[in-house]
Amino acid sequence: MARGKLTAIEVAKKTKPGMYGDGDGLYLQVTGDGKERIGKSWIFRYRLKGHMSASGKPLAREMGLGSLETWSLTEARERARQQRQLLDQGRDPIEARKLLEQAEALEEAKSTPFQDCAKAYIKAHKAGWKNAKHADQWTSTLETWAYPIIGKVAVGAVTTELVLKVLEQPVGDQPDAPTFWEARTETASRVRGRIENVLDWAKARNLRDGDNPARWKGLLDKLLPPKAQVAPVEHHKALPYADLPGFMADLRRRNSLSARALEFTILTAARTSDTIGAVRSEIDREGALWTVPAARLKGRKGTRKRDHVVPLCDRALQILEDVPKRSEYLFAHEEDGQPLSNMAMLELLQGMGYGEDLTVHGFRSTFKDWCSDETEYPNEMSEMAIAHTVPDKVEAAYRRGNMRRKRRQMMLDWAAYCESLPATKTNVVPLRAG
């Protein structure tokens, strides 16, 4: 088709609706009523080789090139020429433009601020978290430590250097103030992990590319000392097992719901959360078993968890028989039937004069120490008793007949020791696995 059929004057004068060809696929499209409301735009028409219509001819396509108000005749001809170049390369101009728009949209999306992505991440995941407090902790720690440094930075532009800037920010105004990683290592480690999760989420949403700069292994572990070296883990304060019989005698003399809950917790070597969340349907009185569902178990992220089955001694069953049945919870308040708070047993310890020396969780360590020092039960068996993860083959072995009997016997021996007369460690007769 001949080109250059239109002139700028003709283009300005066209008012009748229709298509006016300029040549080489370029058309002026006039729309409206032909009088007051008139619209003029540029159209590029072409046929795509290899794509046939029902009539057997190459498929015809139309592509808008913009309005006359934006693009002059000369500019429209240049835009049409660019489309013909794409056709000469075997590319579809419309599909090429879609790809370009997608790439531009992606680049624009990568400019989304980190804090917007973090808020979107929290909103998307909070329904799967155990409680609202977890979402609050995410929000507060990121607002305090991360947002002032990387909050407004495009999520696609967060680098290892910026993550380090978060972790190495000074805590305090003094010139020699320790860094966040040095002074509040546990919190800093959690913030690092949260930044890593947000950046992984952003990559899955095509908001950033490349490796995650907040990942510990292979990146930050080369730049920062391990958490354990900076701030060694402070274990829960535990009662020496030699003192346990005397403690249990004192505890049994106390007539309160929290006292019975604590006694049950010690006899079963359970976690506080497992006890206060326990419901009646989890108890098999005939089989003398308590089954803690996997969904309620605490454990290392990513590990496979199974239901935790706890053999119950006679005293533990008697406690469950004696506590008032106020709701489905085993240890429930009289007023509303709700379970004890996670602070109830700790407050009891404080009332008994152990507030500075013991934690409820520490009795699990007491149990482990007793198993190690005073019995010959295998370590894997005591690990299972406190719901720690053990290899699948080991767990399978201890689920079979004789091994199950030995595991029950271990808990019965523990209960017997808890109820024994106060004695020094040297007077304790070592128990033997049956």
UniProtKB/TrEMBL annotation:
<dbReference type="InterPro" id="IPR013762">
    <property type="entry name" value="Integrase-like_cat_sf"/>
</dbReference>
<dbReference type="Pfam" id="PF13356">
    <property type="entry name" value="Arm-DNA-bind_3"/>
</dbReference>
<dbReference type="Pfam" id="PF00589">
    <property type="entry name" value="Phage_integrase"/>
</dbReference>
<feature type="domain" description="Tyr recombinase">
    <location>
        <begin position="234"/>
        <end position="411"/>
    </location>
</feature>
<dbReference type="InterPro" id="IPR011010">
    <property type="entry name" value="DNA_brk_join_enz"/>
</dbReference>
<protein>
    <recommendedName>
        <fullName>Tyr recombinase domain-containing protein</fullName>
    </recommendedName>
</protein>
<dbReference type="InterPro" id="IPR053876">
    <property type="entry name" value="Phage_int_M"/>
</dbReference>
<dbReference type="InterPro" id="IPR002104">
    <property type="entry name" value="Integrase_catalytic"/>
</dbReference>
<dbReference type="GO" id="GO:0006310">
    <property type="term" value="P:DNA recombination"/>
</dbReference>
<keyword id="KW-0238">DNA-binding</keyword>
<keyword id="KW-0233">DNA recombination</keyword>
<comment type="similarity">
    <text>Belongs to the 'phage' integrase family.</text>
</comment>
<dbReference type="Pfam" id="PF22022">
    <property type="entry name" value="Phage_int_M"/>
</dbReference>
<dbReference type="InterPro" id="IPR025166">
    <property type="entry name" value="Integrase_DNA_bind_dom"/>
</dbReference>
<keyword id="KW-0229">DNA integration</keyword>
<dbReference type="GO" id="GO:0015074">
    <property type="term" value="P:DNA integration"/>
</dbReference>
<dbReference type="InterPro" id="IPR050808">
    <property type="entry name" value="Phage_Integrase"/>
</dbReference>
<dbReference type="GO" id="GO:0003677">
    <property type="term" value="F:DNA binding"/>
</dbReference>
<dbReference type="InterPro" id="IPR010998">
    <property type="entry name" value="Integrase_recombinase_N"/>
</dbReference>
<dbReference type="InterPro" id="IPR038488">
    <property type="entry name" value="Integrase_DNA-bd_sf"/>
</dbReference>
